[in-house]
Amino acid sequence: MNASVHKLAPSLPDDAAPQDTLLHGLDDFCGTSAGYYRRQFAAIARRRLPLTFNPAAFVGGCLWAAGRALWSLFWLGLALDTLGLALIGAGATGGEPQRLWAGALVLLGGRLTLAALGDHALWRLFCAWRGNARLAHGFEPRRVQYGVALALLTVPMTVYRFAASEPPALLASFPADDTLARGAAAAINAATQWMTTSFAPFFDAVTVSVRLVLDSLETVFTGMPWPVATLILLLLSWRAGGLRFVAFGAVALAYLGLFGFWEKAMSTISLVAASVFICVLFGVPLGVLSAKNRRFDAVLTPVLDIMQTMPSFVYLLPAIAFFSIGKPPAVLATVVFAMPPVIRLTALGLQQVPSTVIEAMNAFGATRMQLLLKAELPLAATSIMTGINQSIMMSLSMVVIAALIGGGGLGYDVLFALQQMETGLGVLSGLAIVVCAMLLDRITRRPEKRSRA
Amino acid sequence: MDTAVIENPMVECRGVWKLFGGNSAAAMRAILAEGLGKREVRERFGSVVGVADASFSVAKGEIFCIMGLSGSGKSTLVRHINRLIEPTAGDIIVAGRCINRMNADELRRARADTIGMVFQNTALLPHRTVRDNVALGLELRGVGLVERQRIAEEKLDLVGLAGWGDHLPAELSGGMQQRVGLARALAADPDVLLMDEPFSALDPLIRRQLQDQFVELSRVMKKTTLFITHDLDEAMRIGHRIAIMKDGRIVQIGTPEDIVTRPEDDYVARFVEGISRLHLITARSVMRPAAELAATELEALQQCPTADPDADLDALIDLAVQHGDRIAIRDRDGSILGAVSREGLLRSIQGAHA
Q: Does the pTM exceed 0.95?
């Protein structure tokens, strides 16, 4: 048609032959109005039509989109139509003309949007359909019927809800059944009660073993003279990241010491260490199982989701019921929150072991245990260490909550500041937790690769 | 298909089939009963034919190449030998024992002791030193630390990597890593070596060098080798016999000379079109044996350029062009086996192209 087109797309001159290959099967695809779409698509393919206006889409709105099987456009159109009608309804009954105008504007805007997007959306569907002829295409009255049914289900009720001066309660709020929730809560209470009494020996045993781990760690951390602890922590920083980390470690430890947080920081670190120890003890084997066994993984995944998203206050109550107040339930509540990353990253690490390495191990006659210990776990080590690192960070973020049920340590200071409205103390002890977190994070990073000549 | 009769073969496959996916058991029954084709099998049972009715035997000490393009089923076939892949039908016999009837424990022992494998992507353990990688098979078998390190060092020396034992695999070049893989396979002193395109990922110069090294090594160690390659030149260079695969089927088995001079079908013929025959005919078959030569002729030969009995026509032509018209063919110890004259050489070139 004009020269510029020829310059831009020399391979697509304006004659019919290349159009035939480009728009091959268009008649089958369109069903109706093939002539219109032949022109539009040819223009779109040449990027000559940034803005299109599809009259059918403007008139038919979401029902046109339904008939053409453009379901995203259908929902967009339906939502805008409903909004517009609801505004008009509210304006008409409430006597507010500006709402009426706004509604009309939304209606018009919605139709214009559909008219503008229609051809492009259909072009995309056409391109996809050419690769997969089983995709829905053409204009089908049956789909229009579905569209009408969906519109009838949503539009009248919504418009009525906003237009009616006093909408019926049934439409305004979900008809809740109070007895259902109360009954379920009571059942959970009873179950907790029953478990507390029936499994008392078990819970006691857990409490005792957790306390054993915690006490020995706490003895080590708080009992150690501070110069010794400082030396060890600085050496660990040096191993992990050289002098830069040592400098940071020195500043961090000086802060903890000079501001009087030393003892509490050590207590917090031993609580974190105890919970991370338990996380690794159970998390790594669970991660191995979930990597090896698809069914176990399917069961474990939702459990892990619950552990990570369930607000921790919710399980603090049963934790107290089962393990009473003190440090052991604080450790266990922390474990619930901090174990998922160890499990997930262990499983991920094992899944990422190259299949060729596994094949080679098998070809050399490895048993399953040898495969795990000599190839899979070493190759997953980086991933597992990341999981442990994450577990430490998440344990520290639970310190304040753990203090609520007697976890003590730095969390207690934050809690105390909160109760006494002491902003200064709150900021200082909060910073102490941050400092602990950064210190532990640096120490547990993978040591830098051994350099070789 | 395979005309050579081999007594006491080291490796033998009898009617091996492998179908992937779908209802492979029913598909297998239908194939044996009705002789279905590849497409029918996929349409009726949803199974893909990986290996179809493969039968061959490999003699002790032989290098048996399996040649085919990607997707021809050669890697699948060779993985049946150590049962990394279970056959759908057929028997695989290694060193007189039926691999596909072993229980898990016997299979593990066979893999550890009898069958070594080298992989295209080396599949070394990146966190272990080269020495510990080579010692892997022995370690899995429970050989003590001192003993297995001694053997590993020995095998590293064998593949020309002495002194590299303490490095990590990532610090070695591709060709060196592949030699570590070979040393690892040799460490357990297996009877059978499976080589799955070991040199394919290497650049041509290194590949040629490793091929020569491998041929030399295998001549000394007398390992029975199944060597997979997609490169006909490579197969011709190192294989005693070659099996050519297409679409899961073995189309021809024979010596390089057989394959070039008597291709079974058009597919093989098209494959070997570009192969120069000059490399396949050796001095041994064109020389006049020493017994037929007069004493004066033998005397004269002392001054002539010499060549190995395994030297190919190409090498002989080079010698003839550079040094004169007679070439003495000498054994490794230097004794004269025969002579090639310029006339004889020209005649044999003529024959090679006939």
A: no
